[in-house]
Write a structure and sequence with these properties.
Elements (H helix, E strand, L loop, with lengths): L1 H5 L4 H16 L5 H6 L2 H21 L7 H18 L4 H25 L4 H24 L3 E3 L4 H7 L2 E2 L4 E2 L1 H18 L1 H11 L1 H6 L4 H27 L1 E3 L6 H11 L11 H17 L10 H32 L17
Antiparallel strand pairs: 1-4, 2-3
Helix pairs in contact: 2-14, 2-15, 4-9, 4-10, 4-12, 4-13, 4-14, 5-6, 5-7, 5-12, 6-7, 6-12, 9-10, 13-14
């Protein structure tokens, strides 16, 4: 029973969340009920969680995308420039933001499959390049690094509304929708098996008939577009966009994925783990404000949590491998085969 739980990729994220809450309650003296009812950390969790989901899938496949840090402000600025500065209908601003994500994601994906350059370097170049494009483009087109936007009621209600009593952002609902969708894709469809296989060994996956190149490009498109989507929602909610808004979320998103049980080496992870990882990181980052602990200690707590999560992820992966090997060695074993990442074979 315990071994079955420990071999699940979400185990590390659940233990991390439990440990963080226990630390805040015991050491920080936080009122758990007050913390759980607060909107600040949940809004932040949704913001980074939407991007963390496709980034997690990409990392499970064995790749990484850090250009997402530039795509959040790119989506926001595109929306604000198109529908704010040039006053075109909001639908054009929304399509423009998503279109930028598709274009940049496609470029990243094509470079990843057609060159031997590591995706860390490719997306680092894209990150720096898009930072320049967003800043220079904003200055050239509007003369400012901050652009106001007046969103119509229909756009506000879908992408920028405050819900659940007026303090929670509607992006939380989108986060849940994204999580359910990606859970189905990764854990209930053949595409999930493909992603896990790619993270295990791309050449073997390609020899098995999996369209590795197309899947890689698609995953990069999803990461970039999800980031531009978050930027778009942010611009509609706050009626403005800035060239640096969301730029610092790169580390936070990657950290959420790692805390969520995904290995940087690929082949191991789950959507529930990534979801809980975003919650955990948001509570660490924002929850310290509800304690008597000095806010300056938050980075140390995050660093310790990341180190512990990485160690637990590797330990649980070995447990999963050991259990899987043990099952295969038993004769007449009829239990369904499962991939290392907790994915049932289809």
């Amino acid at each position: 029973m315990i071994s079955n739980l420990l071999r699940r990729p979400a185990a590390a994220s659940v233990l991390s969340l439990t440990g963080v809450l226990a630390f805040y309650v015991i050491i920080g003296g936080v009122d758990l009920g007050k913390l759980m009812s607060a909107a600040s950390w949940l809004n932040y969790a949704a913001r980074i969680g939407i991007v963390a989901l496709p980034v997690g899938l990409l990392m499970i496949s064995g790749e990484i995308d850090i250009s997402i840090g530039a795509m959040i402000p790119a989506g926001a600025m595109t929306t604000a420039i198109v529908s704010g500065h040039y006053e075109l209908p909001m639908i054009f601003g929304i399509l423009g933001a998503l279109g930028v994500g598709v274009i940049v994601g496609t470029i990243n994906g094509v470079l990843a499959v057609r060159t031997n350059v590591p995706t860390l370097i490719i997306t680092l170049a894209t990150l720096v390049g898009m930072q320049g494009v967003v800043l220079a483009g904003s200055k050239l087109l509007t003369g400012s690094a901050s652009v106001p936007l007046t969103a119509p009621d229909w756009a506000k209600s879908i992408f920028g509304q405050l819900v659940f009593g007026g303090s929670h952002q509607v992006v939380i609902v989108w986060w849940i929708i994204f999580a359910v969708t990606f859970w189905f894709v990764l854990h209930q469809s053949r595409y999930g098996n493909w992603i896990f296989a790619m993270g295990g060994d791309k050449e073997s996956a390609r020899n098995a008939g999996i369209p590795v190149n197309r899947m890689t490009v698609l995953l990069f498109v999803l990461t970039a577009t999800s980031a531009s989507f978050v930027g778009m929602c942010h611009a509609i909610l706050f009626n403005s966009a800035q060239v640096s808004g969301g730029m610092n979320d790169i580390f936070n998103i990657i950290a959420s994925v790692v805390v969520g049980g995904v290995l940087l080496s690929g082949g191991f992870g789950s959507v529930p783990g990534i979801f809980v990882g975003a919650l955990t990181f948001a509570i660490v980052n924002k929850g310290i404000d509800f304690t008597a602990i000095d806010r300056n200690w938050s980075n140390l707590i995050i660093g310790v949590m990341l180190l512990a999560a990485g160690a637990m992820n590797e330990s649980f992966r070995r447990v999963a491998l050991g259990v899987a090997t043990g099952k295969r060695s038993k004769p007449k074993q009829d239990a369904p085969a499962r991939a290392i990442g907790g994915q049932e074979a289809h």
